[in-house]
Amino acid sequence: WRSKMVINAFGALTTFVVMIIFAVFKFKDGAWVVVVLTPILVAGFFAIHHHYKRLATELSLDNQPDRNRIVRHNRVIIPISGVHQGSLVVLHYARALSDDVTAVHISIDDHEAEKGKAKWDKWGEGTRLLVINSPYRTFLEPLLNYIDRLQASGRPGERITIIVPQFVSKQWFSWFLHARTAETLRKTLLNRENIVITEVPYQVK
Prior knowledge:
Elements: H1 2-25, H2 27-59, E1 75-79, H3 85-97, E2 100-107, H4 110-123, E3 128-133, H5 140-153, E4 160-169, H6 181-189, E5 195-204
C-alpha cells in the first residue's frame, strides 16, 4: 500500500502542476471555468449537503429533549379592517376552533371605528372586539405590539392562532388590488415560535 500511495501522490502532484500551468497560460481562453467556476460549484454542493444534514438532525426524534406540549387552550385572533361577509366567514371558522376568540380592529379613524363597533355588535355573535388606535395610521406595528403582550402573558407552550380572510377573485388582475394581510403577517412572524397564521379563502367575483 505504501508504493501505491507514493504513485497516487506523484500522480496528484503532476496533475496539480499541469492544472496550474494550464490555468496561467489558458486563463482567458476558458481556463477560468476550471479555476473559478468549478470551486464555486463544489462549495455550493457541499453547502447544500451540509444543510440537508443539519435539517435531518433537527427533525430527528433521536436524543431530543422533551418539548413543551401544546396546552389545550387555543387563543385565536381575527384582525379585521371592517365588518363584511368575509370577516364573518373567518369568525365562524375561528369559533369552531376555540371559545377564546378576539377580533382586533386597528383604528385610524374614530368615526369609522364607531360604525364598525355598531356593526360588530349586530353581527359579531357576542365575540369580543378590541379596537386599537393607530395615531400614525399604521396597521402592522399596533397588531404586533398586541401579539407581543399576549405572548408575554401566555402560558408555556400556548400557541396563538391568527386567522385572516383571503379574498379569491376569478379576475386575475384583482390579485394586485387586495391587501395581502396574511402574507405580510406570515413574513413578519415567520421566525416567531408558537404563532400560527391561517388563511380562510372567501370567493368573490
